[in-house]
Amino acid sequence: MSPSTIPPEFEPEDTGAGEQGPRPRVVLVAIDFSAVSRRALAWALDFAGHTPCHLHTVHVVDRRWRLADLRADLDTLRAELVDVHDAAAAELAPLVDEPTRAGLGSFHEHVAIGDPAAEIVALATELHADLIVVGSHGGDAIRRALVGSVAQRVVRDAACPVVVVKGE
To answer: Per DSSP, which regions of the chain are E strands?
Structure first.
């Protein structure tokens, strides 16, 4: 990315001594409200304590379109999606307390609806993320072999580095 395409809020800081400090990193953390995704968030918050960051969280509601959706009443479907989005946003809000938020360069919460890996990668691309942090559940070996885990797909498809935080 050329310097002219970097938004002003991400420009390196002028330290006043003629030197520029490091520009804040854009870090995207995928949250599914599991214990391992909370560990991923804790890792990202610790990272942000050592490196200037603009931290973004994203929760993806795994809602893929079905044939029945095409026949559904549009207003009913829209209301369902708004309810799901609002519930996820409300659950994201308390994950990071105000003092912690104040210590970050900025903190943003996102909710997306669709295929989790694809939505995480798309948001990372849109944000020009420097790093993605995801949790890995381990999960069922057969499912991982056939379709891959969300974490595996994010690692494979992301244009930036990905930190995978394992469960205990």
So the answer is: 25-30, 53-61, 106-113, 131-136, 162-166
